[in-house]
Amino acid sequence: MYADKFKIDLVKLMNRLWGENFFNAKTKKWAKQKDNDNKRSFCMYVLDPIYKVFDAIMNFKKEEIDGLLTKIGVTIKHEDADKDGKALLKVVMRSWLPAGEALLQMIAIHLPSPVVAQKYRMEMLYEGPHDDEAAIGIKSCDPEAPLMMYVSKMVPTSDKGRFYAFGRVFSGKVVTGQKARIMGPNFQPGKKEDLYEKTIQRTILMMGRYVEAIEDVPCGNICGLVGVDQFLVKTGTITTFKNAHNMKVMKFSVSPVVRVAVEPKNPADLPKLVEGLKRLAKSDPMVQCINEESGEHIVAGAGELHLEICLKDLEEDHACIPIKKSDPVVSYRETVSEESDQMCLSKSPNKHNRLFMKAQPMPEGLPEDIDDGKVNPRDDFKTRARYLTDKYEYDVTEARKIWCFGPEGTGPNIMVDCSKGVQYLNEIKDSVVAGFQWAAKEGVMAEENLRGVRFNIYDVTLHTDAIHRGGGQIIPTTRRCLYACLLTAQPRLMEPVYLCEIQCPEVAVGGIYGVLNRRRGHVFEESQVAGTPMFVVKAYLPVNESFGFTADLRSNTGGQAFPQCVFDHWQILPGDPCEPGSKPYVVVQETRKRKGLKEGLPDLSQYLDKL
């Protein structure tokens, strides 16, 4: 636009618009230093026109808008002529400076190619040794190396119930008809669990809405595979290298904390619903479909809107049946706030084995470190112990004797062996770990997952005969003992909290505070977007209070506030769940009732034995 106007070479003008270049509009001269009568060229020729367009449209300056649009060469279509405010701004910017073209150019210019990026990303991507064939192939992005491909999601095909496995080839090449090892996220090298050796039926390139069949795809490219969907649920690694380890599983910044129970309107359609839930779980990497022991089918998503879209897909595309939905409910976590006030003893059913344990809360920040993978079961135990000692002041001897993490073997709870010289202890380790995983997945208060709890084993008395200390004796005893530890350590409930970012004009800020205060939210930052009349308010909002939040906010701000919510952290729900009438007590009772558990609070005498 400017090159045509000033009759200047495009490349020369581009160089002038960036960096320390200042233009004096009166003398029409360029300078390298800032003076009173000149202005930075980028501000003058790029930012100022954009700001003028924003200012005129958002402040409804009708007489200015037409002149500006003529200058920048934007013609408004007849159907958009009546729009104003944000709606008009979107139309103008799409026509004048479409974001898609600019973003694609910036990606091509600035982001590193796979050949460059994989040199330094291999260590973050690959779980195996960094000097094996697969690692070297990934690092050098070598098309002649063994195939290493990570499938990141499943994309539904036009053929009902089938999916393309969509992912990136990191080394080697993937070929139609090639035999490969398909490794799910639970695969462990040397074992056959979650491992399949199958043929890749077809290789395809995905071009927007269309797919193109292709013979082979070399490393550095993204492609889809046909015939893999029946062996992988959501993600996995595909390789031709026999000793390959898995690629690291993707971590999401959000967590599926909002749950809905679903059932078919016609009970005869139950098999279709079950099949539809399997397809939904495949198609969305974030969603979780759970079958509760009570027989309920639960769909868990990141928020109200995410769930709404998932349930619409389930009803219309995956199950194709009318379904009934419960009101959305929130997942909670169980934790403790003090160390157990007594040594907890539980005896095995045959009364020949005894476990002595205590529970205590983890230091603040450790559960998050475990979630982020900074502390995990795969770490070298000495390195992990040093980290825990330096950062959280754990005793180094105890930190070396962490038996396991849970639930699922990776969760933010740990079991530590603090015993001294106990006979046969290692023989019951697997049974104790199994009991711990059970208790960590289903806590004592409401059978919700535990979070931020450390269990210490202080002493064990075992029968000398191995047959009397088997899994049947030790696993339920461990669970009972852990439940007793929780009940004697001031149990608490934790609720998920959204980080809520709200954009609005200054006049609407007061309405936001009112809505947030009613919903137990609190604002921690408020700032104005430079050069615009818009304010950005950042607040924490409990997920349980977020249902209907957007509609409530719009009605209290005249539709001028635009919220965006993303899961941020867990916080303790104020109050004691053992105290009738408190908020956590009500939540526990509602959850127990929903899950079909015995009403009332669990009694300590059920789990704590006397010597």
UniProtKB/TrEMBL annotation:
Coiled coil stretches, renumbered: none
Keywords for the protein's UniProt record, in alphabetical order: Cytoplasm, Elongation factor, GTP-binding, Hydrolase, Nucleotide-binding, Protein biosynthesis
Descriptive protein name: Tr-type G domain-containing protein
Domain Translation elongation factor EFG/EF2 stretches: 374-490
Domain Elongation factor EFG: 492-581
Catalytic activity: GTP + H2O = GDP + phosphate + H(+)
Pfam family, one: GTP_EFTU_D2
Recorded GO CC terms: cytosol; ribonucleoprotein complex
Any GO MF annotation of the entry: GTPase activity
InterPro entries reported in the protein's UniProt record: EFG_II, EFG_III/V, EFG_V-like, EFTu-like_2, P-loop_NTPase, Ribosomal_Su5_D2-typ_SF, Ribsml_uS5_D2-typ_fold_subgr, Transl_B-barrel_sf
